[in-house]
Design brief:
Elements: H1 7-13, E1 20-26, E2 29-32, E3 37-39, E4 42-46, E5 51-57, E6 63-70, H2 75-81, E7 89-96, E8 107-120, E9 123-130, E10 157-160, E11 163-166
Parallel strand pairs: 2-4
Antiparallel strand pairs: 1-2, 1-7, 3-4, 5-6, 6-9, 7-8, 8-9, 10-11
Length: 171
């Protein structure tokens, strides 16, 4: 079954070079690796450096991939550390050209949830999987410097709920 393309998308697919862009929905946040655009009645903010990588299927046919976001101002790391990205809706579409895009112009590549989030210096990496295909391990976050600089020292004793707990170093 064919799709009806907008005039804009039809022109974009016939251009000498056609560059695909991604529309990424992370819960209520809508980003694109292209310029800011509108689609489906929503504004998709151009986020310089956004990458959609490694999309494929696992052995059971579930779609999975990675979204890499530069942590320009610390906002993305705030979401990761607050656990706000865990289980968030994650959808990825592909479009061609800067828009505005017709409703049928975007092709849905993934519809899932954020399964894992990691920080690597100035980047945040969010792994998405199909709903129900997540395989998380605990603990979800490692609490350590440089973010958590004010942790009690090794050997410190804490009294809590009538117990004495002696803190020991981790990994």
């Amino acid at each position: 079954m064919g799709r009806s393309l907008s005039t804009h998308l039809d022109d974009a697919t016939q251009a000498l070079t056609t560059e695909p862009w991604h529309l990424v929905q992370l819960d209520t946040l809508r980003l694109t690796d292209g310029p800011t655009t509108t689609w489906a009645g929503e504004t998709w903010l151009g986020y310089d450096g956004l990458q959609v990588d490694g999309q494929g299927q696992d052995g059971s046919g579930h779609v999975a991939g990675t979204i890499r976001l530069p942590n320009h101002d610390g906002a993305i790391s705030g979401l990761v550390f607050a656990g706000q990205a865990d289980d968030d809706v994650c959808r990825v579409w592909q479009v061609y050209g800067p828009g505005p895009h017709g409703i049928n112009d975007a092709a849905l590549l993934a519809d899932g949830v954020i399964d894992d989030a990691r920080l690597d210096g100035t980047w945040a990496e969010l792994r998405y999987v199909a709903v129900g295909a997540d395989a998380r391990q605990l603990p979800r976050l490692r609490i350590a410097p440089p973010t958590f600089n004010h942790l009690p020292a090794d050997g410190a004793v804490i009294e809590w709920a009538g117990m004495r707990i002696t803190l020991e170093g981790g990994l």
